Structures are given as structure tokens and as C-alpha cells.
Amino acid sequence: MSTTTTGDRGGRAGSSDPLGSIGWTERTGGVLTARECVTLAPPLLRGELGILAGLLAMALRVHSGRRATIEPARLAPPDSSLARDAQEAAEDLLAPVLRNHSHRAYAWAAAIAALRGISFDRELLYLAAMFHDTGLPSPVPHVDFTVRSAALARQFADRHGVPADSREVVTNAIAMHHTPGVGLESGSEAYLMSAGAAVDVFGLRSNEIPDAVRRRVVEQFPRLGFKREFAALWRAEAKQVPRGRAWYVHRFAATDLSIRMAPFG
């Protein structure tokens, strides 16, 4: 775990915070300006095209995942008391459908890191994965659900003595994860959290995941009707936060259809 000493924003954000970051999300409630909507259009379109290209590659059986291999140990959660406590917290906070989604999102993120040679902090990514959707089942008008998810993660991390800069990594990964086009410049954990969640929800980059890995992860953490339940939660979030990121993706990327088309049961 990182031990440098940058401050924990804790919601005291300035206007220079990047779009989708924890500072931006807490300052704005996650509500997009017209200019920010325009800024997100190209990465959203690239993501949609990537999903379609991946589905076509899998249908034709020419996807890169057919040729890739990943050692199972590289997908396992960290073997630490912090990680185990985070898993127990998630079990208390989440219903089984979202709990299994959190585990799968971590596994997909770790798989992408292994395939692309990305270094990351396993404990911090695991904390982000366990807490990233904890705010989704209880939408609040005009406040992005990741604000509540990040607050729960911050409280947990603070109780467990996680340094302030590491809390910032976790909460930023949570806040960023449903922003279209998150790149490595936002940090490895933020990039991988977004990528892992996108694999599980929309199937983005699922063509890169080895076939055996996809089968094994879904067998270990069953979907349990995830598509139907998550689509309903996303619609509720989009309704409660007009001009939020969930609203934006739902309106311009046809999320119900994208979720149904994801290559999972």
C-alpha cells in the first residue's frame, strides 16, 4: 500500500479537479455541465464502438481472449486482514447480486492488468471494488451514487488506519469508475476499476479476457439475474440525478440494450 502523504480531500475540492474525480464529484454532486457532456461524447462513442467490435470478434471466434492465458493466482484478492475486512463490510452492505458483481469487477480488472502489464496496488483496488456500488441501491436526488460509495469507503479506510493518500486513491477510483474514457493518467487503480466494472456491466473488453477465465469467474461469482437488477438500479440513478453520468450514459448509450448484449448470462 502506498505511504506518501498527500492530503485527503474529504470533499474540499477546487474547480481544477478533473471531470469524474472524487473532488469534482463531491463538489458538483456529479451533475454535468453542457460543456462536460460534450467532452464525454468522444470517449463514450469509442466505448460503444469497442463493445460492438468485441461482440463481433467473439461471435467470429477471432477475439484475443482465445489465445491469452492468465494464472488464477493473479486474479485472487489480496491475502490481508484489510481485504478480508473489506469483503465482510461488502457482505453487510450489498445484496448478493451487487456483491458478486463487485468480486467479478475486481477479477476482470486484475485480468486486464495482467494482460497489459499494468502495476497496481491490490489492496487499494480491492477496497475500491468492494465499495464502488454501495451507494447505488439508495439513490439521492441530485447526488451521484459514488459520493455515498466513496464516503462509506473513506469511513472504512479511516477506521482501519489507511493513510490519507491511499484513501484518496480508493475514493477517486470509486468516483471515476462510471466516467466514460478513464485512462491510466487517472491512476492505475482508477483505470482498472473503471475497466473491470465496464467488462461486467457492458462487456467492454470482455473479448480480451481468456475464455476459461470468464467461465471460471462467473462460476465462482454467479450473475444471479445481474442484468435485470442492475439495469433497474441504473435507470433509478439516472432519474434521481438528471444530467449525472448515469443519466448521460443511459440517454446516449442505450444502457438497457448494452447491458442485455453483454456476453454473459
UniProtKB/TrEMBL annotation:
Region called Disordered, residue ranges: 1-22
Pfam family, one: HD
Residues annotated as domain HD: 98-202
Domain of life of the native organism: Bacteria
InterPro entries in UniProt: HD_domain (IPR006674)
PROSITE patterns, per the entry: HD
Protein name: HD domain-containing protein
